[in-house]
Amino acid sequence: MLLCPGMIKTRFAPSPTGELHIGGVRSALFVYLFAKSKGGDFLLRIDDTDRERYVEGSVERIIESLNWLGIVPDNLDNLVVQSERKELYHKYAKQLLDQGDAYICTCSKEQLEKDKEEQVANKLPPMYSGRCRESNIRLEDVKEGEYVIRMKMPKGEIIKFHDLIRGDIEFDSSLIDDQVLIKSDGFPTYHLATVIDDHLMEISHIIRAEEWLSSTPKHLVLFRMLGWEAPEIAHLSQVLNKDKKKLSKRDGAASVIEYKKLGFLPEALRNFIVLLGWHPKDETEVFETMDSIIGAFEFERIQKAGAVFDMDKLNWFNRHYIANVLSLEELTERAREFVPSEWSLTQEIMASVRSRLDKLSDLKEMISFFFELPEYAADDLYWKETKTAKENLEAVLEKISALPESGFSKTAIEEINGIVPSDKKGEWLWPLRVALSGKRVSPSPFEIIAGLSKEETLRRIRLGIEKL
RNA sequence: GGCCCCAUCGUCUAGUGGCCCAGGACAUCAGGUUUUCAUCCUGAAAACAGGAGUUCGAUUCUCCUUGGGGCUGCCA
User: Which residue of A87, A130, A335, A415 has the smallest Cβ count within 10 Å?
Assistant: First the structure.
C-alpha cells in the first residue's frame, strides 16, 4: 500500500477520430499499469478539439476497446471532454494575452503558406514569420473567425526537462515556433488544452507517446506562463510496422475492435502488447490476468526503442491462450458467438479443436463437419495402401452398435481401443476418422465420437461402409 | 534541411565493467511422439551497427560516424 494513494494520477487522452488502434492501446496500457502499480488513478480524457476529424461514436468504441482489454478508467462516469470546456480555455488564453505571453495573429492561411514556401526555397527552417508578434492587436479589433491566438515563445532560452524514460532533454527555445493556442474556429489546439486540463485534473504524470516529445517544451513554457507546476513527464516509444515506421491503419494493423471480431482473446492481445517494449524482471512471458501484470510491472523496465509489431507472436499468444490457458468451459462460452446459434457448441467439440485453433473466427469452418458431414471420396477411407477399411469399419460398427445410449462415447472408445491391434492403428483409425469427419485432416476419431451422438456416429460409419 | 529521440539474433527482449566466444520467447530449420493435421518433446542455426577513447578488462561508460524513427500543421 502506498502512503498517499491518489497522489499518482495519470490520464489517457485519445482523440475520437476513429477506432482505437494498437499504438494507442499500448500507450493506454502502460499509463494504466503505471498508475495501478503505484496505487494511483487512471483517468480518461477526450481530446476532441479537432472537430473536422471527429468521428461520431468513436468515444464509445474507444471505451469499449479499453474495457475489453481490462483497462478500466477510474472516471468513467465523469469523463473530461475538451469540446465542452471551450470557455475555460478562452479564459486562460485571455490571461496569457493580458500577460503579454500570447498575441493575436491575423495572418491568413494563404499568407502563411507563402511564407513557408519562401523559407523552404531559401533553405531556412519553416517557422512562423512573427509578423503579428509585436503588433499588439487587441481582441476588440478583430472579428470572430478571422484570427488565432499564438503563444509568445521566449527567444534564446534553453528549455530543460527530465523525461522519466529518456532522461535529461533540452531544446533551444529560439527554434520553437509561436504555437497557435486558439484556432480561428475558437477551439483550442491540443497544446493549450492539454496543459490546462492536465493542471486542472491534477495529473501527476504525463505519460504519452514519443511523437509528443518535440512539443513538450511548448507545454512546459505554457505551464510556467500560467504559474503552474508541470507534472512529471515520460515519453513512450512507438509501435512500429515491419518497415520500422510508425504503425498505422495502412499496415493492416487492425483496430482493437477488429481483433475482437476476429476472435482474438483479450488476454492474449493484452499479453502480447504489454511485452512490446516492456519485460518483467524474470523470464515470465505469459501473464494470464491483469493483476499479474500489475504485480510484475515496473515502469523503469520500459524500453526506449520502438517496438516492431509482430503478428506471428500475437498469433502464438492467441493460440496458446486458446489451447492452454482458458478453461474449456470458459472457452466454449466465449466461442459461442462465433458459430451459428443453431449449432449446439459443446465442450467436447471445443476440446477436439482447441489445440489447432488460431482464432475463434476460424472455429466455424473447423467444426462444421460435426453438424453436417461433408461429401468425400470413397478412396479417402483407405489408409495408405491398405484395403482393410471396409472390414475394419464393419467390425467397429458391430462392436459399438449395441452399446447403450448413456455414456455411449466413453464406452465406444473403450470398445474400439479393445479391438484395434496396436501395430495396425492406421488401418483401423484412419478409415474411422474419415468416415466420421469426411475429411483427411481432422481431430482424432475418439474426439469426434465424443462430440457426436450415438445415432450420428453409427450413421456416419454405415455411410462410410456403403461407399466401399 | 533544422531540432529531438533511439540502436543486442529476422522479431520482442535479458544483460547496468569481468558470471557473456551473450540468456529466454516468437518465427525458421532438423529430429521424436502421433492414424491425419495440430498440440507436445528434443536439438540446430541466428545478434552486441562501425570507429576511436576510458579501463587490467567493455554488450555494458564517453565521443564521433552510420543507420532508423519522431517533430517541424489554425491534426492530435
Answer: A87
ipTM for the predicted complex comes to 0.96
A282-338, pLDDT tens digit by residue?
999 999 999 999 999 999 999 999 999 999 999 999 999 999 999 999 999 999 999
Considering the domain architecture, whether residues A108 and A27 belong to the same structural domain is answered as no
Q: What is the grid cell recorded at A465? A: 461402409
The pTM for the full model equals 0.95
DSSP run (H or E) holding A207: strand A205-209
Could you say which DSSP state residue A304 is in?
S
Phi, psi of A423, deg, nearest 5 = -95, 5
Give yes or no for CB of A13 within 7 Å of strand B.
yes
* Other beta carbons within 10 Å of A287: 19
3 state DSSP class of A380: helix
Containing domain of residue A183, as a range? 85-236
Note whether A119 and A101 are same-domain residues. Answer: yes
Q: Which of residues 166-195 of A touch strand B (CB under 7 A)?
A: 166-167, 169-172, 175, 177, 180, 183-185, 187, 189-190
pLDDT in tens, A7-16: 899 999 999 9
Residue A430 Cβ under 7 A from any strand B atom: yes
Tell me the sheet residues that pair with A99: none
Are A127 and A204 found together in one domain? yes
